[in-house]
Design goal:
The complex is a heterotrimer. Chain A is mostly helical. Chain A is built from 16 helices and no strands. Chain C contains six helices and twelve strands. Classes of the chains: A mainly alpha, B mainly alpha, C alpha+beta.
């Protein structure tokens, strides 16, 4: 039987991390990882909707073949700012900085992260970087594409490249600090008995993610620094007119930006492992395989960056190497999907909202991942590179995958974070709306891409219109699907049913504590004696 | 740094400087050291991008780079290398003094390290001024005696100023850290049981030294065989 | 007639059907696995749905056999994708020897095309059907990309160097040309057409335009005008390497390296002669940076290539007489510090 910790305290504790102190200073100067997680929640939500606004304008423009809603330069700024906001200010921080920050100390039985002040600093660094970028947005935006290819970004663009570059440079350090904090915490602060192979898979995923954050982000930082130097001082590092090499920029940029996509998806995979086990009421199938798959993805993810450059003019042999490595990195992801599916076999499947998001993730990530194989295939990538096929591929993974994982996790841990239950019927409805809207938005884009519609096009040939209209219709539905949870989650903070410590009957140390937890997470440091995901009648009885 | 000036740990009883998220002083030490090592790895990747650019452009313009390197002042460069190596020695002595509880020696060695670091920056300033004077700072004012090699030479100097500039910035930050340590040491904050901030600052200082050990040959010595 | 809804691009090149075959294989395999996972998830979700709040399924520990199987099988399938894709990729990157040479200069936001015999086009490229065509491309400013969906052909066009691509059109018709690398404000307007014509029509088109001289001939004139022949000559007064028969051959450099004299090497030798000094020669060649445009560079390259070629095939002889129109573009700003 489980002997993890003593009985949790009564359902409505007087003091928890939310009410332990009041006032704006207690939030802005907090060292509590849970409060910092909420600071991040507010910030990333803001940027999510800002990025979504840009997406809405893009899709509205693309309703008609002619460029008639906005000017060409405005359109170019819209897709650039959409990419920059969504990637750097929403997707990369989202799960790690919100859910990771909140849960990792609790999941390993610690009072806080290793460096709480560094944690708060990482949020402030994020905010400062975000402000620089917002300044650029307000003053007219950037039009280089989020990829900033040289020499356009250094020599040709008329827009606020420097401000945006500085903003991203600064925000990168937020990522590095978070990753550093997680690595040290997971290594040194596990509760007694919490061996590596007793860690929840959410923690393994975040450990792998942190490796990427720590090793990859500095390369982006120095690349942006070089772009800055070139643009301000007119030095020739990447500009051929000044003796530089634009392909060098691409290598340096993608060395970070490919692993970055794993920063975005690995945490979501960690969430899914938690959701599938809880809502199948079963241990994960192949724990070690899933754990090592996370590490494998992180390591292999650093070796494949050149698959973004098959037609760039790099050598054919480089293309071969990057292609074969890209196929290798797909394998651990496939292994995870098979293991999650097998976990459901002979389980006890519940259809609560978090599980609906998990189903959505498995389906959409599988499609997105499979289309990645098309792109790793040299002969096909030549045709679909820089078309809507690519856009569809990465949105399947980043929206169909990462955002579904994020929303699933938010709903799953909402009772723990807020002490309230969200309204289940509305939540299921919203999940369905998201799923339908998503497919309608992005599936037609695979067809558009193979037909040859290039990306970043403000106007397009008329024969592409019908598919574009379908995509825009889907985007409106998808947007609605995101707005609904905003409303009911906020509503639930005031009017939601009070949450018990363990509403889902889950294993895991975070559920041993009250909802919301006390500031120090546990009354006494827990001692762990069991493997993770070991379900017994104790959990069954607490299911609410 | 997270575990530098750390008041308020009375809740955990004995150990001074123990922060409340840690179970023991040993855990805090382990975490602080690992944290600094992880940070240094990020620094390696950070400098790495510039080293990569240097490698590629030198491979493409080997001869021109070697000739451009002859414009470096080998005496000053060697002096700086010696200065930094000595400063690593004094820093290591400072850490040792902290570990053995000798406060006065700790302060002395910290001051010595800072003076040497300041000397390094001073010599660097002299070199930079000299290069600017000779129109070797890249940009509109750049002028190189061998026009056919001008483009490659300007690339060399861009990398020189970029890499040594970034390194100098890290030195300045290092001096700031040492100042903080000095203030704390004078207040008697470090004991044989608790001197983690000194240890991890030592790691940082040694790292900055090692970066210079790589920069020096790549920037100053690659043309020597031509002389 | 309602709005058109094409769902698949037409196949207009020899490569297109090969790419599509691989694509359909990928679709079939991916479709199979996607449907398999979907069915399994749906079936499990229904069959094992929670029927009572107190039910507690037994844990399954996992299965090494299954893990190995579903690692090895996807890996093997992935390798099949790799090999087929790599084979196609090689074919895409190695043009046949007898390909028709066409030169492309991209600039914000238009495509300038030069045929070997001097015909020039803007945003349009006429080619004969059933003949391999090789494009040598460069950009005057930022990175562009030459993309013809109907040929399944795409290649980035870079400033400061040449990239090449080739295709073999199999069906007459008019096909979209897109710029597929974001290049600024009018990126989506940097489009054009590829006109594939029957051989007879193509001949008619070639001779129908304004009389112009071939690229090689224009290049020969530039060679004289810039006094290249004062050093690159075949007698004892030569101070530079002999260019006769040079193109396509390996060159020994002073630093011990050996490089092949291709278009990029020629271009680099004209613009930054000190980058690669040929063994046995002094670094005395002046740079022509700022003195020749990208289009003039292509003419010089065509001229040096012609010093190695056999005489051109019949049907592509240059139109008689006429000088090339004067070119006013410059490749790069004047070198500073000179």
């Amino acid at each position: 039987m489980s002997a993890v910790v003593r009985e949790p305290e009564p359902q409505e504790p007087r003091r928890n991390y939310l009410n332990s102190s009041y006032g704006i200073r207690s939030w802005l100067l907090t060292k509590d990882h849970k409060r910092i997680a909420l600071l991040y929640l507010v910030s990333v939500t803001f940027f999510f909707f800002l990025g979504g606004l840009f997406a809405l304008l893009i899709r509205l423009e693309l309703l008609t073949p002619a460029g008639d809603l906005v000017q060409a330069e405005t359109y170019n700024k819209l897709f650039t700012m959409h990419g920059v906001t969504m990637i750097f200010f929403f997707l990369i921080p989202s799960i790690p900085a919100v859910l990771g920050n909140f849960l990792i100390p609790m999941m390993i039985g610690a009072r806080d992260l290793a460096f709480p002040r560094l944690n708060l600093l990482s949020w402030y660094v994020y905010v400062v970087g975000a402000l620089f970028t917002l300044w650029a947005v307000v003053h007219g935006g950037v039009d280089t594409g989020w990829t900033f290819y040289t020499p356009y970004s250094t020599a040709s663009s008329n827009a606020h490249v420097i401000a945006t570059a500085v903003g991203i440079f600064i925000t990168g350090f937020s990522s590095i600090l978070t990753g550093l904090n997680f690595i040290v915490t997971i290594h040194t602060m596990r509760a007694p008995g919490m061996t590596w192979f007793r860690l929840p898979l959410f923690v393994w995923s975040h450990y792998a993610t942190s490796l990427i954050m720590v090793l990859g982000t500095p390369v982006l930082a120095v690349t942006i620094l070089m772009v800055f130097i070139e643009r301000v001082l007119h030095l020739g590092i990447f500009d051929p007119a000044l003796g530089g090499d634009p392909i060098l920029f691409q290598h340096l940029f993608w060395f970070y930006s490919h692993p970055a996509v794993y920063i975005m998806v690995l945490p979501a995979m960690g969430v899914i492992s938690e959701l599938v086990t809880t809502f199948s009421r079963k241990n994960i199938f192949g724990y070690k395989f899933v754990a090592f798959a996370s590490i494998g993805i992180a390591v292999l993810g650093f070796l494949v960056w050149g698959h973004h450059m098959f037609v760039s003019g790099q050598s054919v042999y480089a293309g071969l190497i990057f292609s074969v490595l890209s196929f290798l990195v797909a394998v651990p992801s496939a292994v995870k999907v098979f293991n999650w599916t097998a976990t459901m076999y002979k389980g006890s499947i519940s259809y609560r909202t978090p599980m609906l998001y998990a189903f959505g993730f498995i389906g959409l990530f599988t499609i997105g991942g499979l289309t990645g194989l098309f792109l790793a295939t040299l002969g096909v990538d030549v045709h679909v590179h820089d078309t809507y096929f690519i856009i569809a591929h990465f949105h399947y993974i980043m929206v169909g995958g990462a955002i579904m994982g994020y929303l699933g996790g938010i709903h799953y841990w909402w009772p723990k974070i807020s002490g309230k239950m969200y309204p289940e019927a509305w939540a299921r409805f919203a999940a369905l709306v998201v799923f339908v809207g998503f497919h309608l938005t992005f599936f037609p884009q695979f067809i558009l891409g193979y037909l040859g519609m290039p990306r970043r096009y403000h106007a397009y040939p008329p024969e592409f219109q019908v598919l574009n209209v379908m995509s825009t219709a889907g985007a409106s539905i998808l947007g609605l699907g995101y707005i609904i949870p905003m409303i009911y989650l906020v509503w639930s903070m005031r009017y939601g049913r009070n949450a018990p410590p363990n509403p889902w009957g889950s294993t895991g140390l975070e559920w041993k504590s009250s909802s919301p937890p006390p500031t120090d997470n546990f009354e006494e440091p827990p001692v762990v004696t069991e493997d993770p995901y070991t379900y017994s009648h104790e959990e069954v009885e607490t299911f609410g | 740094m997270a575990s530098a000036a750390a008041p308020g740990s009375a809740a955990h009883g004995a150990a001074p400087g123990l922060q409340h998220q840690f179970e023991s002083a040993g855990q805090q030490r382990e975490a602080s050291a690992l944290g600094m090592w992880v940070f240094l790895v990020t620094e390696i990747l950070f400098f790495g991008g510039l080293f990569l650019a240097y490698t590629i452009y030198r491979w493409q313009n080997a001869r021109a780079f070697a000739h451009a390197s002859l414009h470096m002042d080998i005496a000053l460069g060697t002096a700086n290398t010696a200065v930094l190596i000595c400063s690593s020695l004094t820093m290591a002595m400072a850490v040792h003094s902290a570990a053995t509880g000798r406060r006065k020696l700790l302060i002395g060695f910290l001051v010595a390290t800072m003076l040497l670091g300041g000397a390094f920056l001073g010599i660097k300033a002299i070199e930079y001024t000299d290069h600017i004077h000779h129109h070797l700072f890249p940009g509109p004012g750049f002028h190189y005696p061998v026009p056919a090699d001008a483009r490659a030479a300007e690339m060399f100097f861009s990398l020189y100023f970029g890499m040594t500039g970034l390194h100098a910035l890290h030195m300045v930050v290092g001096l700031g850290i040492l100042t903080t340590l000095l203030v704390l040491a004078r207040r008697g904050r470090f004991t044989p049981e608790y001197h983690t901030p000194v240890e991890i600052s030592g790691l940082y200082w040694h790292f900055v030294d090692i970066v210079w050990i790589f920069l020096f040959p790549l920037l100053y010595l690659i043309g020597r065989h031509l002389k | 007639m309602g709005p058109s809804l094409p769902l698949f691009p037409e196949q207009a090149s020899a490569m297109a059907s090969r790419v599509d075959a691989l694509y359909f294989y990928l679709l079939a395999v991916s479709g199979f696995f996607a449907v398999l996972i979907a069915i399994l998830v749906i079936v499990f979700a229904i069959k094992y749905r929670r029927r009572s709040e107190t039910e507690l399924p037994r844990g399954i520990e996992g299965s090494l056999k299954l893990e190995v199987a579903w690692t090895a099988i996807p890996l093997a399938i992935a390798m099949s994708f790799f090999f087929w894709g790599a084979k196609l990729f090689f074919a895409m990157n190695i043009p046949p020897n007898d390909a028709l040479e066409v030169y492309v200069v991209g600039k914000q936001w238009m495509w300038k095309v030069q045929h070997a015999d001097g015909q020039r086009e803007i945003n349009e490229l006429h080619v004969p059907v059933n003949r391999a065509v090789r494009l040598t491309m460069t950009s005057e400013d930022v990175i562009h990309d030459f993309f013809v969906p109907a040929f399944r052909m795409k290649k980035d066009v870079l400033p400061g160097r040449y990239t090449t691509a080739w295709f073999h059109a199999t069906r007459p018709g008019r096909y979209h040309l897109f710029c597929a690398q974001y290049c600024g404000t009018k990126h989506s307007a940097m489009i054009g057409w590829i006109d594939v014509m029957e051989p007879a029509d193509f001949q008619a088109w070639l001779s129908g335009g304004a009389a112009s001289e071939s690229l090689a001939s224009a290049g020969a004139k530039l060679f004289q005008r810039h006094a290249c022949n004062t050093c690159h000559r075949q007698d004892s007064l030569a101070r530079g390497p002999n260019l006769q028969g040079l193109f396509g051959k390996p060159v020994q450099l002073a630093d011990g390296r050996s490089v092949v004299a291709d278009e990029s090497y020629l271009r680099e030798s004209i613009l930054t002669p000190n980058a690669k000094i040929v063994a046995g020669f002094q670094p005395i060649m002046p740079t022509f940076q700022g003195l020749v445009s990208e289009e003039e560079l292509l003419q010089l390259v065509a001229y040096v290539k012609s010093l190695s070629n056999p005489p051109p095939a019949p049907g592509l002889t240059p139109a008689p007489g006429g000088a090339a129109p004067p070119l006013v573009n410059r490749a790069a700003p004047p070198e500073k510090g000179k």
